[in-house]
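I hope you will forgive my troubling you with a question about protein structure. Here, with my thanks, is the record as I have it:
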Amino acid sequence: MKAAIREILKTVLLALLIFVAIRAVAHNFEVHGFSMEPNLHDGQFIIVNRAAYWFSDPLRGDIVVFKTDNRGIVHRIVGLPGEVIEMRNGKLYVNGEKQEEPYTQGGPLSVSPRRLLHGRFFIVGDNRAATSWHIVPRRDLIGRAWLIYWPISDWGMVPNHSWESEAN
């Protein structure tokens, strides 16, 4: 009887260890609202890679989940530390140069020019008519959105669009 109890305890502890390890690197998240249309939709569930930025820096175009006011928000990084970011009628300007953003839905969003301090990222939703913008410190990034898993009909990779990776 002791051997059976010991095996059950070992199995439960191993399962718990595996669960904790997986949660350290992956997290599920529900998309709320319409700020990421047309790429992510209200009610979708995604997997977030929490380890994505352990050994590399966030890139412009990454869809991330970040924490604010004790809740998570999913938006896209469009400005990196040290850059001057401006938005005019929903169009993004980085250091004075207009950026092409083929993944956005238009809108009147405007933001006066602002320089991002060290370790800060400018993050905004893709649906510029129904979004807010945020300047987020790196420590508040939960991770990079990776996989849409619900509903099943939407299953697939999250449409990250890292501009820097296309230049290489």
